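Aim 2 progress. For pyridoxal kinase, the working sequence is reproduced below.
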Amino acid sequence: MNVLSIQSHVAYGHVGNAAAVFPMQRLGVEVWPVHTVQFSNHTGYGAWRGPVFDAAMIRDVVQGIGERGVLSSCDAVLSGYMGSAEIGAAILEAVAAVRAANPATLYCCDPVIGDVEEGVYVRPGIAAFLRERAVPDADILTPNQFELGLLTDLPSRTLAEAAAAIAALQARGPRVVLVTSALCTDTPSDSIDLLAGAEGRVFRVRTPRLAIAVNGAGDCIAALFLVHYARTGSAEAALGAAAASVYGLLKRTAEAGSREILTVAAQEEYVNPSARFPVEAV
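Predicted structure tokens for this construct:
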């Protein structure tokens, strides 16, 4: 399996491609990473160094990959933090180029916009670009609960509301929607839910809620869900596998008291999760 992954990258720590590439490789996937930024560390530290790349660089690198004659063997494209609407447009051009060579290619879009704690943290124009252009192009969409609301203008306080918001997104293009973290009215205070909608059904996995706040977990789960879905064709199976792996990763990270997710040290969790959780149709 070959995945073209276009997102941010950091030298120290694990967000963007630095959180997504190795877990996919550990699952036996060949990954072609294209970086939208090259930062020293993630911006949560308050200070960082390094450049933001422009759309022309993205186009140039993807064109070079195409010139190797390998786009027909690309099984999926994964995108995350975009940096600008112009970079988003270059990513969708890359998706179109890959689909022209291999119509079966999946496009998984992690619509990074913000979260409950920080609100919207991307540049102006990105949220609108994702709503209007990326969502209709995506096969798989992986918002968090905050992003689900921004993309649909719908509430998701209850499970029924969340299911309706998922269906509203699917009606605009994506066949599968994964909500990477959901706290609904029936979610126990010591738990967190992950929801996946596909083919008119919604599935839920409930895991213990860990006392941890780190960056990169969403990037990791989007990558793992994409790989498992591409291999099985089942959102239910992909949800169970990805949720188990990310829970194990975060549990190890919490136990170590690390500010960065233990992407490498906890690698066994990707192939042999230490805990699994039931997947239920809701």
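The two ends are 31 Å apart (CA to CA). This observation will guide construct design in the next reporting period.
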